[in-house]
């Protein structure tokens, strides 16, 4: 796939894809004999992983470290696992915080719904 096709498929700009490759967030993309990027299934899998990790809020630095470790081979499996465990723990903390905020908002909304229903606001 060309960079333009990958850009459309994953809704990322070509600049973003080049940037991700340049800083090591995705490994070097395969190239044609003419030097043009030619994304393979494996390259696209990396793009998908980065999109998933970024949408979950993982920092670029953590993703780049994961890619670097992956490229270093099987000896880094424990380090890769640890990195993912740590990132998951941080995401769990964020999820807990978001859940608390949602519960608080749900409570406030229910109070306003009650005020609308009864015409009485007993709490603000």
Order of helices and strands: HHHHH
Low-confidence stretches: none
Mean pLDDT: 94
Please state the second-level CATH architecture. Answer: Orthogonal Bundle
Number of H/I helices: 5
| Quaternary organisation of the protein chains | single chain
Work out the number of β strands. 0
Global morphology: elongated
Strand content: under 5%
**Number of domain units:** 1
If you compute it from the alpha carbons, what radius of gyration comes out, rounded to the nearest whole angstrom?
22 Å
The CATH class label is Mainly Alpha
Into which percent range does the helicity of residues fall? Answer: over 70%
Folded structure, characterized:
The chain has 124 residues and is mainly alpha-helical. The chain has a single domain, classed as Multidrug-efflux Transporter Regulator, Chain: A, Domain 2, CATH 1.10.1660. It is 71% helix and 0% strand. It has five helices and no strands. It has helices at residues 3-10, 14-23, 41-55, 60-72, 77-118. Helix 4 packs antiparallel against helix 5 (77-118). The longest helix is centred in the last third of the chain and has 42 residues, at 77-118. It is elongated. The chain starts with a helix and ends in a 6-residue tail after the last helix.
